[in-house]
Amino acid sequence: MTRSERDLVTALRNELAAIDPARPCDRVAEAAGLGTRIVTREPAIARLAVRMRRAGEGSQAGPFDWATAAEHCRTAWLRGHFLARGSLSLSGGRTHLEFVVPPDEAATLAARLGEVGLPASFRMRRGRGVVTWKSGEAVGTFLRRIGAAGALLELEARQVSRALRGELNRVLNAESANLQRAVAAAGRQLDAIAVLDADGRLPEQPYIVRLVADARRETPEATLNELAERLELHRSAVQRALERIERLAEAEPAPPATSPEPSGMIRTHA
How far apart are CA 186 and CA 114, in angstroms? Predict the structure, then answer.
């Protein structure tokens, strides 16, 4: 991740760690989600753990009864579990959130997330269970659910900005490719017009073909639509005329016709 992305992830985790649940049951649930043995280098998470212990929730944080817990308690437990076991990556424009848990807890955590409408995949990695989301939408829904607000808005704004830049680049690349094709086609057409003009075949062409040829020479940068609008013709008529010009230029001109000698003429020899 870039420094900016790391700073955003840190700000998001700090924001979540600063939440102080109003309900005692939620504080108990969040303490249970954090666990009793937290090893972290994040000051905000360390302060949260100390706060829980001082308030007495740390000693009460036994096994969390997910099945009977209220929805707000489940949310608090998930927040604590994310802060203790979760990580968020924004590297390369991709959003990736995962929990690293003991192997026997991975399936349980994935099932709990599925129950609250956030299905996640899980696998084993180096002897640990890994529960993962790779969908930016799922990650955003989860973070919003557990209380992220300001940092999540910034994350979503960046994602929208990145998507817009990607779409703009796609459109610009398509327009550039179309322009290159149009320039190449106009160059071929001008060369073909010059060939037909040089060998005298252009004046022999139908009026529409000559009209389009003159317009192309006068406005080499014009598109087919612009030529059609200028000449008050259908675009298809302009395209057929230009295709005819290119086709004729590629073909060898017909040899000039020779006049037959009058019958009965007597040749004389010097």
Answer: 59
DSSP annotation of 20: -
Query: How many of the other CB atoms lie within 10 Å of CB of 86?
Result: 21
Please give the average pLDDT of every successive group of 10 residues along the chain, which has 270 residues.
80 90 90 80 83 58 84 94 90 83 94 92 93 87 88 75 80 88 92 93 94 94 92 94 94 64 50
What count of residues does the chain have? 270
96 - beta bridge partners? 89
Tell me the one-letter amino acid at 152.
L
How far are the Cα atoms of 87, 92, 137, 145 from residue 150, in angstroms, in the given order? 18, 22, 17, 13
- Residue 55: CB atoms within 10 A of its CB come to 15
Which one is the CATH code of 3-148: 3.10.28.10, 3.30.1360.120, 3.30.565.10, 3.90.25.10? 3.10.28.10
Q: In what order do the strands lie in the sheet with 96-101?
A: 86-89, 96-101, 128-133, 121-125
Q: At 270, list the tokens.
A: 């010097």
Q: Where are the domains of the chain?
A: 3-148, 173-250
Cα distances from 159 to residues 6, 67, 90, 258, in angstroms, run: 15, 35, 10, 75
